Amino acid sequence: MTATAPAAAHRADDIELNSLGFAKPPSQTRVVVAMSGGVDSSVVAAKLKSEGYDVVGVTLQLYDHGAALAKKGACCAGQDIHDARRVAERMGFPHYVLDYENKFRESVIDEFADAYLSGATPVPCIRCNERVKFRDLLETARDLDADCMATGHYIQRKDGSVRAELHMAADHNRDQSYFLFSTTQEQLDFLRFPLGHLESKAETRALAAEYGLSVADKPDSQDICFVPNGDYAAVIEKLRPGAADPGEIVDLDGNVLGQHRGVIHYTIGQRRGLGIGGLGDPLYVVRLEPETRRVVVGPKTALATRIVPVSEVNWLGDEPFKGEISCMVRIRSTRPPKPAILRPIDARRAEVELLDPEEGVSPGQACVFYANDSTRVLGGGWITLRRRPAS
């Protein structure tokens, strides 16, 4: 069932390991399943229950239901909690809803707003996994005497020669390794990802139908759960009044080309919606300067970046984090990994040299490291100010 399933062929003290890697029967193995109400986590819970595991479902209430109910398809909205509860009732396992609203706001939403105000482009889903689901919820799972915690993420956990390893999902189109780079080794030892080996989302939906789950045809959530209709600026303005103050659009030499309606409305690499057409060659957002409320634009060539500084590095490799490390890196979730040289500065900071310059490298995004010629995730870090142009 899981990426650890091959381990079932081995024995510990003459007791065969179950599909989650424990030397005891499934009925004596308690697993807490993080249930969002979507089809993925619902299938994980139903599959584990059908295999005889002692399943406990937990859904997090992350923000106010009143606002969430107006957002169809949002993660952990009122309907999603209801859907998770129905799955638990059908399959016959306990289900709990935990109020994490304050923790979510403090750990994720506030930083999301402040990052935009500082000119960065944050990825709140990573912070949610890091600071809420894989920290607070994982501790709750331990408090419930669980042997492990399972989620519906599309990523693989494999037993390596040295330790448990994190790998890309078998279906690279649904791979979520970019969003889970900050998973620590201790967390990885406790986590299980039963869907990571599936070849397509169609297989997941087929399993949901097989178990008779009402969410079998439920659409995937497309937006960040607390951002209705993808309108980031509206959320930031509500959280930080005055965040959308207008300012100048300038070129690389500081010449004023026009006015903008607030730095929070722009991202590095953006071309459309600048309102400065008719100036010759296309112009792109090259840099955001929130302190002067300036949006700096330039030609596409000005976007090329070779050296990327990263901080808050999480290292999952077997070898020490030092020297020069040849690897592949991904600087946006939608881009494939590219060859790079990783140069650690200390345990938590590094400089990444992209062998082929990338365009639109933005502070606040993640830079995720992968092993060469492998699907293994070696860790990653957060891209920090400042970008350096390609030489």
From TrEMBL:
Per UniProt, subcellular location reads as: Cytoplasm
Source organism of the structure: Paracoccus homiensis
Protein's gene: mnmA
| EC code | 2.8.1.13
- Would you tell me the Gene Ontology cellular component terms? cytoplasm
Single Gene Ontology MF annotation: methyltransferase activity
**Function, as annotated:** Catalyzes the 2-thiolation of uridine at the wobble position (U34) of tRNA, leading to the formation of s(2)U34.
Concerning Pfam families, the annotation shows: tRNA_Me_trans, tRNA_Me_trans_C, tRNA_Me_trans_M
Provide the catalytic activity annotation: S-sulfanyl-L-cysteinyl-[protein] + uridine(34) in tRNA + AH2 + ATP = 2-thiouridine(34) in tRNA + L-cysteinyl-[protein] + A + AMP + diphosphate + H(+)
Any GO BP annotation = tRNA wobble position uridine thiolation
According to UniProt, the name of this protein is tRNA-specific 2-thiouridylase MnmA
Q: What NCBIfam families does the entry give? A: PRK00143.1, trmU
Question: According to UniProt, where does the site described as Interaction with tRNA lie?
Answer: 153, 365
Q: Which residues form the tRNA-specific 2-thiouridylase MnmA-like central domain?
A: 244-298
Q: Which residues bind ATP?
A: 34-41, 60, 152
Its chief place of residence is: cytoplasm
Catalytic residue list: 128, 225
